[in-house]
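Section 5.1 Outputs to date
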Amino acid sequence: MAPLYATMRSKFGAAPLGSLRSQLLRWLLIPLVLLVALNAVSVYDNALDAADMAYDRSLLASTRALAERVAIKDGKVVADVPYVALDSFETDTLGRIYYKVSGIDGETVSGFDDLPPVPANVPRSEAYPALVRFYHADYNGEQVRIAALLQPVYDDSMRGIALIQVGETLDARRGLSRKILVDTLLRQAVMVLAVASLVWFAVRLVLRPLMRLKIEVENRALNDLSDVDQALVHKEVRPLVAAMNGTMSRMHNLIASQRRFIADASHQLRTPLTVLKTQAELALRENDPDAMREIVRSIAATTDATVHLANRLLTLARVEHGSEAAGMAPVSLTAIVRQVGLEMALPAVQKQIDLSLDAADEALVDGQELMLHELVTNLVDNAIRYTPAGGKVALRVRVDGLKVQLDVEDSGCGIADDEREKVFTPFYRSSGALETNPGGTGLGLSIVREVAAQHHAVVSLASASAGPGLRVVICFDSAA
């Protein structure tokens, strides 16, 4: 579990993952709050535009009311504004209103003569069928909104355009703006709280199947490695459950393989240990020194065979349960075969076997050097064991494009065609091998196939090039 956790930390960051529920709530609610805030700003702006339009319409109505009282008398522009009208213009419950009537030549006819003039860059309002302009200005230290209306005036003696301006302080508008803002924020806050509650309950409801899956896995027996029902969770989580089932299936196969190995190993070791015990008991009862020496010699031979079997069993266990990806790197198969040839030269010389090597200068493969050494050692050891005295064992390494081929050919008893697949089964021995070397273990080719599988190599058996014998061919992918 520790390497897996370290791998996950390296891929997804140093900090451990927190609560899925809290992450879902954060990713749902934080964007929601931002969207609601943007919506509140938009609603507020729209409400202000509507309020400004309403107040501008009221301001225009006041301007038109004044325009109706503007006329020409005795060749002059006059404004007949009664005191009651002046009172209604000059005071207001929420703000103050100012007005000014200018004549044809720009002279002040009535009202506040210091009211700010119309800026030159203010366009005519397109919202109303009138020659009116709206603008903001500072007047007596306050911000005011002013409507400026051009009003035609004429009589029999003259005609022209009078300017009527009505300004209003922004107190009423600001009060309405604050009310709109408060109402908008209250409505949006209530909506956010309601949506947050719904999202919390929804997330809790959606994650309930994961909680059921957690309880189902926790309540399982230690030896229960059966598949988890994928119907317990949603469709999006089923690939995870499928991966869990695959992992448990591999664990089941691994445990079954270990049990099988232990059973086979105990069975295979029981016979030589029993023989050793029998030989020791015979030695204890024997008084003849020559006979005892012969028994001790048999004990030594049995011990050597038992040690060889134990080493093969340990090698097979290490190969079967090792990681095929650990320590993979480009290695020279030529150098490994040459090293094994030197190591096995003495047994070959003792049996008067011609051990030869024909190898490419540089044959690189991706692999684990120790495991490849074990593979070649098993092949050469088997070839020497099952080749009679005076025979030949040839080692060849060839590079063919993107492939590297290893051949180990001997002049021994060979393997019949119908047994060539069976000999890769642990402890299985061919009929020829039983006759040639009764004390073998039947593990050599099993180890070879396991190592080759970890290196994505293909193992095949064939007859020797000339005469009896066996040719083992292993084809690797080149690392060059």
